[in-house]
Amino acid sequence: MKVFPLIVAACALAVAGAGSARAQDYSAPGFYGAVGYSGVAPKSNNGVLAGAFQSSIGDDWEPTLTLGYRFAPNWGAELWLPLVKFEHDVKLDGAKSATIKHMPLLLTAQYHFLADQAWQPFVGLGYGWVNVSDERTTGPIAGTNLDVKDGSGVVGQLGLDFHATSNVFVRADAKYFNWSSDVRLNGAGIGKAKVDPWIYGISVGYSF
């Protein structure tokens, strides 16, 4: 899996910094950024389309970027987005029928527990938007015009930061994105795709 080298590097950085992670200021206000790798895993059974066909959307992993600001010891806000579009296979009744790409943009506010410690669990809540594009049909619906509309919804987040130094940190987190999109085929509405993905990620960041 492509995420493995990043996990190994993140763990190595955490171990290397463990000795210097004491007596540091981890909660100073300021901007931070992180680069990572995230997987979008839609829920099972993504809705019935055209009144008869059960839809299923596959997973995908891509590099991601996080930009944030810590405005109080325990509080922060951040923007998360992929560096390239996620791409998913779509199946109807088990047969591959389409591929879609999408670019999500998630904005969350966070509360960090243990703000004066190197290990900081956190929770977040916010809102997300997603632009769906590049729909391509194949198999049983090849040659038709598929249109999956953009979507938006509430985002919940759980995560853990390890501060190797006062500036460098490693993060693992999971976000739940309550997202669904209307679907049209040859201009006619055929239902709603209930994507509702979990988004899992690991990243390495720097506080300025």
Q: Within the CATH hierarchy, at the fold level, what is the topology?
A: Porin
Which runs of at least 5 residues are low in confidence (pLDDT < 50)?
6-23
- Please report the distance between the alpha carbons of the first and last residues: 31 Å
Radius of gyration: 19 Å
Question: Which structural category fits the helices and strands?
Answer: mainly beta
| The CATH C-level class name | Mainly Beta
Structural domain tally? 1
> What is the second-level CATH architecture?
Beta Barrel
Morphology call: elongated
Can you offer a commentary on this structure?
This protein is mostly beta strands. It has a single domain, classed as Porin (Beta Barrel), CATH 2.40.160. Helices cover 7% and strands 63% of the residues. It is built from one helix and 14 strands, in the order αββββββββββββββ. Strands 1-4-5-7-8-10-11-14 form an eight-stranded antiparallel barrel. It starts with a helix and ends with a strand. Residues 6-23 have low confidence and may be disordered.
Sum this structure up briefly.
Helices cover 7% and strands 63% of the residues. With 208 residues, the chain is mainly β.
